[in-house]
Amino acid sequence: xxxxxxxxxxxxxxxxxxxxxxxxxxxxxxxxxxxxxxxxxxxxxxxxxxxxxxxxxxxxxxxxxxxxxxxxxxxxxxxxxxxxxxxxxxxxxxxxxxxxxxxxxxxxxxxxxxxxxxxxxxxxx
Length: 125
Fold this sequence. Notes:
The chain is mostly helical. The protein has one domain (about 5-125): Ribonuclease III domain (Ribonuclease iii, N-terminal Endonuclease Domain, Chain A), CATH 1.10.1520. It is built from six helices and no strands. The longest helix has 22 residues, at about 10-30. The mean pLDDT is about 95.
């Protein structure tokens, strides 16, 4: 499978699931066990607004390599037919960039890099 040629929305689709698992595992390891509390805490990490902020911080530093930046920019520049419900289109596209990056790394079996990125994301909140 040539991951570089997979549609960025498909990468974001799988990346969203992987990202969510990391967030949920992190919260449970923090000792949060009540479902309502888990949900409220997870929103801090999985909202498009916060995901966009995380990725913008990464883009402002040298944390990401060129290959990773290309995935994010492909996702950000992708023509989107549907309008997001709870955020503006620019925020949504940056959030999609983060999810696409996670999906790309997952399909490329770059688990260590996902862990590095998620460690940075999780410590930002």
